[in-house]
Design goal:
The structure holds 3 protein chains of 3 kinds.
Chain A lengths: L2 H18 L15 E4 L2 E7 L7 E7 L4 H16 L5 E7 L5 H9 L5 E4 L4 H5 L7 E5 L5 E6 L5 H14 L5
Parallel strand pairs in A: 3-4, 4-5
Antiparallel strand pairs in A: 1-2, 3-6, 6-7
Chain B lengths: L1 H21 L27 H12 L19
Chain C lengths: L8 H10 L6 H7 L6 E11 L7 E2 L6 E12 L4 E13 L3 E6 L5 E5 L6 E12 L6 E11 L2 E14 L3 E14 L13 E17 L2 E14 L7 E4 L2 E4 L5 E15 L4 E12 L4 E13 L3 E13 L26 E14 L2 E13 L17 E11 L2
Parallel strand pairs in C: 2-6
Antiparallel strand pairs in C: 1-3, 1-21, 3-4, 4-7, 5-6, 7-8, 8-9, 9-10, 10-11, 11-12, 12-15, 13-14, 15-16, 16-17, 17-18, 18-19, 19-20, 20-21
Classes of the chains: A alpha/beta, B mainly alpha, C mainly beta.
């Protein structure tokens, strides 16, 4: 193989890596990818993102093994209770591969919002998650308005601001 | 001069391929953030019980000739 | 009363805790480090076997150490963590002093007749910046004190991600030790000596797949100053001289650690290997394997095995026929050729926010356990039993 071919091969590999190594990122301003998932521990009940159209959605990707999630749950519950139910929904997506971890977690951190189960990680991949946990604020038209990676207690203030902005914003059309 | 460029370019190609191998492995699929549940287990840590690791390491380190046991922790001591 | 370990333990502490490297980086890269916040207590009982049967002088009952450790580890703010610990040890028993060549060429182990109890206190503190993120820096300091020995050490280590699957760890530490051997006048020992040690390490941790990780690292330690043992003597010809070792020691080590989760069995396997070589001629291999088994009702069982082998320092011998061409002499078994096998079994049980733990370790060293064998038996190698109980309270 000539030196030039080797170089081209190397560049080719790098390009392939660059595009596949990173899951497709979902940017602010783009439509939130649609999904349909079963409710955790309720096999027959399913929910879709489309059902929430018209409300502002806080979408939270979590897992029982994720440390910061322990802090986020009670704070999200409090945030949820502050918001008008007619204008806002909090949807959590659990990415655990097995069920006993999240079952114990939900028992220790009870909340009144629904967790959907995505053990295969398909929705996580569609949303291009770069870290755990990750949350997205989606407006009434299904457009991503904000995204957060990781969780610190201070994030709640920023999330509250973003949600209230989206609730107050007029529809695009 | 041309030879030097060739050699340098060959080296760069080699580094690029090696580099991509390092950055997650060309042959292996990268582990996604949501797939790290098993890695987060307490028993998957390098040192799940640091206090015990420190005591065990400190003990052995004062009875053997090689210092710096994995996970050892302790102070200067009159170990005999 | 006692012999000095070869590297300042406080330094060893810092650099090998540092060599614990990029602590939980593999899960951290995506998740953010989970810093346990807890208060812990441990009680350890270390008890050496009596001297092996054979000619000896002095008390054959060897060392016994009872130690207590207290630790507080907690998050401090959203991205910092602190860790403070204190250790208190009470040591008693006799230890090898020197060897005499007996009439039938068998070594006679002469023991120090120490029956006095000694105390050692140590405090350690560390502060981690960036705890909960993928890059972190940890600063640590420790101070240890006992009647004849004081050691102060400082260290820093850093962990940074290189891409999704790799984490780089590196750091260094420094220690300054002071030795004031007691009964120095009576036994004509050195009066006041000191030693400086420095170490550096670098490591790479690789997330192989969702259930396994591998870490490999290099470590370099340099010690300079008084490295001999002021409490040991050596037979040279028909006289007894002070243990005399070079005033510089350089050691390089390579280590590899592998962790693999078996989720179906709810267990994990640990395998560690370490190779070390120094300029005194000591070469060592360490292999350890442990199995972490989680059982119903929050029980955890951890059996483990360890094998250690070292080749002797160039200037080690049970006794020296004459001074010859030797510049340095030591008959400290810890510089001799020997191997050691140890097995331990630990248990842990969680009830609410409390964790109860306990375990036993049995360690047995012998000259013929060494890889590559040995020319002659190294007298005085030690075997011991160590047991511990522990109590932890989780703060969050």
């Amino acid at each position: 193989m000539t030196m030039r071919k080797a170089m081209l091969h190397a560049i080719g590999i790098l390009l392939v890596l660059a595009t596949t190594a990173f899951a497709r990122a979902v940017d602010v301003g783009s439509p939130a990818p649609a999904f349909e998932l079963p409710v955790f521990a309720q096999k027959d009940k399913r929910m879709t993102l489309a059902e929430q159209r018209g409300k502002v959605v806080l979408l939270d990707f979590w897992a029982s093994w994720c440390g910061p999630c322990r802090q986020s749950f009670p704070l999200y519950e409090k945030l949820r209770s502050e918001m008008p139910a007619a204008d806002f929904t909090l949807l959590a997506i659990d990415l655990d591969e097995m069920t006993d971890g999240p079952a114990a977690f939900l028992y220790e951190h009870p909340v009144h919002y629904v967790s959907l189960a995505d053990p295969e990680g398909d929705v996580a991949k569609a949303y291009g998650l770069r870290g755990m946990p990750s949350s997205f604020v989606i407006d009434r038209d299904g457009i991503v308005r904000a995204k957060h990676m990781g969780f610190k207690p201070q994030d709640i203030d920023e999330l509250r601001k973003e949600i209230l902005e989206s609730i107050g914003a007029k529809n695009a059309q | 001069m041309r030879n030097r460029i060739r050699v340098a370019a060959r080296r760069a190609a080699f580094l690029a391929v090696t580099g991509c191998a390092l950055l997650g492995g060309c042959a292996t699929t990268p582990v996604q953030p949501w797939e790290r549940g098993q890695l987060a287990r307490w028993d998957m840590r390098w040192d799940p019980d640091p206090l015990q690791g420190a005591m065990a390491g400190h003990t052995r380190f004062s009875k053997e000739g090689s210092s710096g046991e994995i996970g050892a922790a302790g102070g200067g001591c009159g170990c005999n | 009363m006692g012999a000095r370990p070869h590297l300042s333990p406080s330094l060893a502490a810092l650099m090998s805790a540092a060599a614990a490297l990029a602590p939980e980086a593999h899960a951290q890269t995506a998740t953010g480090a989970e810093t346990d916040s807890r208060v812990s207590y441990r009680f350890n009982d270390y008890s050496e076997d009596s001297l092996a049967p054979g000619p000896h002088l002095g008390d054959p009952e060897r060392y016994r150490v009872l130690s207590q450790q207290f630790q507080l580890a907690t998050r401090a703010g959203s991205e910092s963590a602190i860790d403070v610990s204190a250790t208190h040890e009470v040591m008693s028993g006799s230890s090898p002093w020197y060897l005499l060549r007996g009439p039938d060429n068998r070594p006679i182990q002469v023991m120090s007749g120490a029956t006095i109890q000694e105390h050692r206190n140590e405090v350690r503190a560390s502060w981690t910046q960036g705890a909960g993120t993928s890059s972190s820096t940890t600063w640590s300091a420790s101070y240890s004190q006992e009647r004849d020995y004081r050691a102060t050490a400082l260290g820093v280590e850093r962990s940074v991600p290189l891409g999704d699957a790799l984490t780089l760890g590196y750091g260094g530490s420094f220690s300054h030790d002071l030795i004031d051997p007691f009964e120095a006048e009576k036994y004509d020992r050195v009066r006041h000596e000191d030693k400086n040690s420095a170490s550096a390490f670098g490591s790479l941790a690789w997330v192989i797949d969702r259930a396994s990780v591998l870490q490999t690292g290099l470590q370099l330690n340099v010690e300079h100053g008084y490295l001999s043992d002021p409490y040991k003597l050596v037979s040279v010809g028909s006289s007894l001289v002070d243990d005399l070792r070079p005033d510089r020691r350089v050691q390089a080590a390579w280590l590899a650690r592998y962790r693999r989760a078996f989720s179906a069995a709810d267990a994990a396997l640990h395998v560690n290997y370490r190779y070390a070589q120094d300029n005194w001629g000591i070469v060592s291999h360490t292999v350890e394997a442990a199995w972490f088994q989680t059982l119903p009702s929050r029980w955890e069982l951890v059996p483990s095995l360890r094998y250690y082998s070292q080749q002797q320092a160039r200037f080690y011998a049970p006794y020296f026929v004459d001074a010859g061409s030797h510049n340095f002499y030591s008959s400290d078994y810890r510089l001799g050729t020997f191997g050691a096998l140890s097995a331990s079994f630990n248990l842990r049980k969680r009830i609410g926010k409390w964790e109860f733990s306990g375990g036993v370790e049995r360690y047995h060293a012998a000259t013929d356990y060494a890889l590559g064998g040995a020319d002659a038996v190294v007298p005085g190698v030690v075997s011991y039993t160590r047991a511990f109980i522990g109590l932890d309270y989780l703060l969050q």
